[in-house]
Design the sequence.
């Protein structure tokens, strides 16, 4: 058995650190070099070394990342893209044809919703939004014979709604559709959808997988090899691949995902505890809280409950906006999943485009991406910002 085969049975962190790459035979380089090359010398016409001919089709730095992505999600093959949305777009074109239909979360990530509603729809892929927490509603949204994909995020953004991956896989498969899970919020450390019956895992690796807010990227991971071939064909045909510099950074981040996620979760739990008893906080939303509607399912399918915490303040929308503006250790900004704590007002920032629709989020809502700083500094900052 090769080292890589042994890794199939290894623990999460061992896979994150060692899968996808053996130290370079020529130099012993422990870390995959950044192969900044577009093309490869052939030993005679068609005599490719290791299958590499052109870097859109394959690049060793990207190959290493794709190997580890598959390993941490317990999949067979991983694919790295220039962004999460590039991964999603490639997947939609690989899996659907004009006339097909998709069921999507009624609180889907804004960019995903825009891709379905403003881009895919024009090409003939129709969609119906439904609540991922409501298995019956997701089933009812299926159009028999036309629905090819059921798309799920869990936890969702920013209300942290939970969908039952195992139950939704059953719903999709009964209808002859595939279950796609956007696993960005949980990260592969906390949740591995392919082991629960999902067919495709999607990531914005920009978030927890990269983990340092220094690179934009996306990924797809699958178990089925036929599906993998379809995705590989579209990845090469459409060309929205991760470049070698981006692949290097994302791979470097992924090695420490486990230790980072445990600290994100430790800190988030302490932030939740602090906010729950704070006089100026009306409600704390976190799947780890026993009174969260999705708590039991989250406890069943997630290792821990993640680093994102949302809360509503007592003083209405202006109070929420003020809290975001006053925080100092928490940086005011969009995105999530980096080592640094971020704070945002979803109503006026990430979710401004859904104001006035069914997807509108409460004006008094604040979303935190709890980072891995010293937790006392985070609590003191929130206390100051809420005052
Ligand atoms: C950020 C994000 C995306 C989009 O990824 P990009 O890397 O920004 O293209 C998709 N889904 C979720 C849940 C996200 O948070």
Sequence:
């Amino acid at each position: 058995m090769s080292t890589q085969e042994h890794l199939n049975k290894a623990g999460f962190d061992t896979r994150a650190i060692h899968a996808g790459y053996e130290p370079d035979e020529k130099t012993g380089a422990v870390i995959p070099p950044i192969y900044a090359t577009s093309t490869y010398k052939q030993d005679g016409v068609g005599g490719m070394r290791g299958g590499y001919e052109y870097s859109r089709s394959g690049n060793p730095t990207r190959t290493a990342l794709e190997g580890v992505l598959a390993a941490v999600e317990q999949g067979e093959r991983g694919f790295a893209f220039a962004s999460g949305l590039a991964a999603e777009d490639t997947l939609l074109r690989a899996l659907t044809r004009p006339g097909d239909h998709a069921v999507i979360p009624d609180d889907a990530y804004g960019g995903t919703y825009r891709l379905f509603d403003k881009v895919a729809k024009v090409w003939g892929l129709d969609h119906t939004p439904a609540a991922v927490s409501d298995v019956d509603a997701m089933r009812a949204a299926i159009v028999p014979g036309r629905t090819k994909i059921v798309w799920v995020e869990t936890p969702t953004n920013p209300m942290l709604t939970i969908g039952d991956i195992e139950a939704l896989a059953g719903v999709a498969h009964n209808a002859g559709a595939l279950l796609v899970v956007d696993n960005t919020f949980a990260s592969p450390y906390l949740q591995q959808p392919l082991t629960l019956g999902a067919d495709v895992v999607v990531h914005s690796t920009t978030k927890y997988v990269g983990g340092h807010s220094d690179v934009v990227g996306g990924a797809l991971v699958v178990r089925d090899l036929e599906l993998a071939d379809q995705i590989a064909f579209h990845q090469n045909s459409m060309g929205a691949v991760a470049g070698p510099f981006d692949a290097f950074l994302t791979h470097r981040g992924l090695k420490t995902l486990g230790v980072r996620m445990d600290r994100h979760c430790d800190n988030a739990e302490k932030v939740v505890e602090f906010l729950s008893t704070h006089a100026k906080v009306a409600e704390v939303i976190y799947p780890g809280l026993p009174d969260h509607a999705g708590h039991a399912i989250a406890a069943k399918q997630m290792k821990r409950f993640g680093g994102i915490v949302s809360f509503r303040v007592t003083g209405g929308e202006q109070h929420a906006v003020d809290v975001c503006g006053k925080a100092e250790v928490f940086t005011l900004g969009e995105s999530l999943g980096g080592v640094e704590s971020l704070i945002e007002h979803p109503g006026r920032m990430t979710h401004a485009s859904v104001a006035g629709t069914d997807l509108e989020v409460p004006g008094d809502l604040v979303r935190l991406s709890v980072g891995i700083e010293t937790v006392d500094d985070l609590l003191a900052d929130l206390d100051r910002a809420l005052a």
